[in-house]
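TL;DR need structure tokens for one chain.
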Amino acid sequence: MAAQLIKGAEVSKQIREELTKEIEELKEKHGVTPGLATILVGEDPGSKVYVGQKEKACNNLGIYSVRTDLPADTSEADLLDLVKKLNDDSKIHGILVQLPLPKHIDATRVIYAIEPDKDVDCFHPVNVGKLMIGAGRFLPCTPHGIMELLKRYDIATEGKHVVVVGRSNIVGKPIANLMLQPPPGGNATVTLCHTGTKDLATYTKTADILIVAVGQPKMVTGDMVKEGVVVIDVGVNRIGKTPEGKAILAGDVDFDSVEPKASAITPVPGGVGPMTITMLMKNTVVAAKAS
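>> reply
TL;DR here they are.
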């Protein structure tokens, strides 16, 4: 039997429909329009596309959007001044500084400058700490999206062995922590693997739920998983172009060899990817409600 496809595009659409109603209610009953400010420094093509997608999502949902594009030689001091102005702007409930930043700017210092209550990416150490103890107002976007996918596809996590491959601050560490949280969290047993893990397949073969976020195309293959595994592939890797010039994408999981053994699996594209921006929109609404 073919694995069930976990379609993030469909779940994302459902959540955006729910958010549209929440935003309308906020405006009508409380006179509050959620506001998101995005800052792009430089001309990184991927970052420009991503910021554009965020701006479009705001416009479609009725979120007030402020986008600031700065030249690559912008000083760290000027960027910090802009962040401070947005911190003080009552119309802005969420601030997102697109990463990566130019090398002369200390990204950590910039992230720390964002007010925790407006840190809708959930990168500020205050929000990371709250996540650790299960007290976060909002959650990191991609890990939160993964939790929503599992929840809406009725995939139980309680008591399961979840193996996470990748220990980034953006995906690996926070999703491992979310899976550890007591009910209504993941309540799972978690193994976190990384570049220092020896014989990775020893661990991935024991996973009931396997989450892979490493940025290496097709790294996990069919011989590395057990029958019935649920696979969440976070990777989006460009591995070539079609004759028409369209990018060919692959996940961190070799879909063709893993899918026959899986009970459920996210496709690439159309799996985890669509959830990230949607959860950013949700965090902005949550921040506006708390303002």
